[in-house]
């Protein structure tokens, strides 16, 4: 589960990768591949303790003649249980030098381990913190070219759905939000989460914004989107920033703040609502194109060698545009009359629920 961030002023003056790892255990949540219930953990510990009792009983039984009386295996098991639990009735005792050495170097450490297993509540917390620290340390050292999604509301979740459907690994997506409840949902999907305000530079640094490939800005308000975009562009000049605003009149503010692409959500929704009242099949087809899991989808691919010099309208795929040097030319523009080396095509492809895109990059 995500935790509340106890931010201190030192994060504002230090590079986050210089901050001690243990101070971030309540900031970053890295999903574990294994989710175990408390009852399962108790059962596992009890199993380890029982196995330890059995192993010590075997050791004692092998040297059964070295005790105050010849031991049966039940006697050895009994001696193991009362010794490891520190009960120590004293009715069975080692009498030879070898048996006493076994007690010193095997049974005594086993007794300590046994107590740690059974009385390990505090130890469990410490172990969990250590595991988190190691996970965060490894993540900080290896995180590169990831995608940060700021805001895990409807827009943020939909953006992540498209990323995952386009082949992105859950571990390559970092979600930033201030609500621990929504971060818990994100963690259950296998996403890395950072709890905090996306307008804060220290939060963005913790999310590794300076090493991110792209940042999706999807807060609930337009003014927050502008502040987030300004902060991200300042910290990550080379990252691609895709932002969402509700009103078209704020689109230019996002572009001036450093966004590479801006999606106007309210206006787009309004257009679809208007189309739905006149031509419902058009809206159905648009929904199909925007759903990457089934039906049709708009995708991007590199051109093949035998397509160089051809008119994209005459290719086998339904081509919508040509991307050249990062610039999009629609199919009806003069620049898209012929395909040049290095171009990429935006086209309509048929998908299936089990499809896993290879070279195609999903677009929204």
Give the topology, please.
Blueprint: H1 10-13, E1 28-29, H2 38-62, H3 73-84, H4 97-118, H5 121-142, E2 147-150, H6 154-165, E3 173-177, H7 180-188, E4 192-195, H8 201-206, E5 214-217, H9 222-235, E6 240-245, H10 251-257, E7 261-264, H11 265-278, H12 280-290, E8 295-302, E9 318-324, E10 327-330, E11 344-351, E12 361-362
Helix pairs in contact: 2-3, 2-4, 11-12
Identify the quaternary structure here: single chain
| Rg value | 30 Å
Helix content: 40-55%
Structural class: alpha/beta
Whole-number tally of structural domains:
3
Unreliably modeled segments: 1-16, 354-364
Overall pLDDT confidence: 79
Distance between the termini: 31 Å
The main sheet orders its strands as: 1-4-3-2-5-6-7
Taking the sheet with the most strands, its summary is: 7 strands, mixed
Strand content: 15-25%
The succession of helices and strands, N to C, reads: HEHHHHEHEHEHEHEHEHHEEEEE
**How many helices?**
12
């Amino acid at each position: 589960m995500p935790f509340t961030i106890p931010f201190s002023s030192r994060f504002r003056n230090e590079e986050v990768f210089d901050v001690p790892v243990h101070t971030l255990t309540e900031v970053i949540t890295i999903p574990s591949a294994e989710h175990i219930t408390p009852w399962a953990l108790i059962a596992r510990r009890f199993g380890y303790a029982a196995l330890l009792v059995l192993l010590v009983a075997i050791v004692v039984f092998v040297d059964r003649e070295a005790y105050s009386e010849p031991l049966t295996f039940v006697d050895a098991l009994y001696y193991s249980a009362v010794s490891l639990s520190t009960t120590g009735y004293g009715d069975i005792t080692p009498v030879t030098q070898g048996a006493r050495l076994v007690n010193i170097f095997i049974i005594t450490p086993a007794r300590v381990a046994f107590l740690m297993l059974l009385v390990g509540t505090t130890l469990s917390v410490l172990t969990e913190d250590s595991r988190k620290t190691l996970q965060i340390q490894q993540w900080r050292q290896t995180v590169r070219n990831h995608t940060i999604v700021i805001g895990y509301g409807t827009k943020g979740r939909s953006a992540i759905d498209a990323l995952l459907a386009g082949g992105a690994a859950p571990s390559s997506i970092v979600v930033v939000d201030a609500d621990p409840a929504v971060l818990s949902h994100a963690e259950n999907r296998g996403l890395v989460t950072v709890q905090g305000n996306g307008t804060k530079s220290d939060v963005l640094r913790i999310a590794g914004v300076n090493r991110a490939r792209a940042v999706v800005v999807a807060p609930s308000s337009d003014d927050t989107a502008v502040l987030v975009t300004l902060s991200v562009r300042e910290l990550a000049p080379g990252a691609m920033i895709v932002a969402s605003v509700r009103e078209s009149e704020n689109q230019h503010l996002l572009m001036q703040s450093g966004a590479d692409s801006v999606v106007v959500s309210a206006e787009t929704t309004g257009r679809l609502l208007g189309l739905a009242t006149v031509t419902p099949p058009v809206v159905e087809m648009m929904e199909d194109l925007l759903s990457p899991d089934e039906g049709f989808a708009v995708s991007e691919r590199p051109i093949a060698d035998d397509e160089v010099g051809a008119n994209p309208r005459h290719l086998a795929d339904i081509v919508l545009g040509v991307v050249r040097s990062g610039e999009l030319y629609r199919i009806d523009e003069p620049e898209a009359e012929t395909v040049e080396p290095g171009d990429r095509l935006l086209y309509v492809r048929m998908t299936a629920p089990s499809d896993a895109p290879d070279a195609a990059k999903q677009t929204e």
